[in-house]
Amino acid sequence: MTLPAAVIFDVDGTLVDSERHGHRVAFNVAFEERGLPDRWDEATYGRLLEITGGKRRLTHYLLDKGYPQDQASSLAAGLHARKTELFRQLIDAGEVPARPGVTRLLNELAEAEVPVAIATTGSRAWVSPLLERLFGLDRFTVILTGTEVPDRKPDPAVYVEALERLGTPAGEVVAVEDSANGLAAARSAAIGCLVVTNDYTAGQDFSRAALVVAGFDAPEAATAVTLQTLAGILARPES
Ligand code: XBP
Ligand code: MG
Questions:
Q1: Tens of pLDDT along 31-90?
Q2: 151 carries an active-site annotation
Q3: What domains lie within the chain, and their CATH numbers?
Q4: Most buried among 60, 64, 145, 238, by the most CB within 10 A?
C-alpha cells in the first residue's frame, strides 16, 4: 500500500461541524451587539455558505440588502472582527467539538508518520486555538488559513501553497474536504479528494471526488475512514 506523502485537511465542516451552531451563532450575536435586526436562521446561513470567507459573506449579504459598497465593507469588517472574538469564546468554552473519528484518523496518520497539513478559508485568529485545543498544534506540519492566503476556495491558492510548503507533488497527496467549494479548490490543485459531507453540504455536486462518505466513523461512513482509505485515493484521484 503506497501511503500518501501528506494529507491536507479542511477545517470547517470537515474536522469540526462548526457552521450551524458555531459560526452562525457568533454572526448573530455580532449583529445583536451592533443593534442590527439581522439574524441568520439555519436555512439562510446554509445558502450564504456558498460564499467562502466570513467577511466576504457579510459584505455580500449587506450589499444584497442595499448598503453602498463602502458602508458594506466597513460594517462587514467590524462585524467580522467581533464575530471572530465570539467564535473564539465558543471554542474556549468547548462548544466546537471534533467530528467523530477525526482524532482516531489523525492518530493513525501520526503512527504511520504521514505529514498532516491544514488548508482552510477560516481566520487564523480562531483556527490556531481550535487546533491546539482539539488536537495539539504539533500534529500539523503546515497550517494555512484565510489570513495567510486571502484568495478563498474554490480558488486553489491555499492548496497550492500547502503543496509548496510541504514540498510534495499533488499526485502524492490526499485532500479531505466537506463542500463543493473545497473539492473544487483541491481538484484545481490536482489533488485527489475525499469528501466527508455534513448536513449543510450533503446535497452538493461531488462528482469530482475520489470518494464521498457521510462521516469518518461507521456506520455513517459505511466503513470507517482509515489510512488505507486515504491510500486508496492516491490510486484513483478522481472517480
Ligand atoms: C469555511 C469558511 C469560513 C467559515 C467562517 O472554511 O468559508 O469562512 O465559514 O470562518 P473552510 P471565518 O471550510 O475552508 O475551513 O469567518 O473566519 O472566515
Ligand atoms: Mg469546509
A1: 999 999 999 999 999 999 999 999 999 999 999 999 999 999 999 999 999 999 999 999
A2: no
A3: 6-17+96-234 (3.40.50.1000), 19-92 (1.10.150.240)
A4: 145
Q: Which ranges in 93-226 belong to alpha helices (H)? A: 102-111, 124-134, 157-166, 180-188
Please give the DSSP secondary-structure letter assigned to residue 101. T
- Distance in angstroms (rounded) separating the CA atoms of residues 116 and 100: 18
Report the pocket of ligand 1 as residue ranges, CB < 6 Å.
10-13, 19, 23, 52-54, 84, 120-123, 146, 153, 182
Q: Are 28 and 195 in contact, with CB atoms under 8 Å apart?
A: no
Q: What 8-state DSSP symbol labels residue 139?
A: G
Q: In 3D, which of 168, 186, 169, 188 has the Cα closest to residue 177? A: 186
Residue 186 cell numbers, joined: 483541491
* Run of H or E including 79: helix 69-92
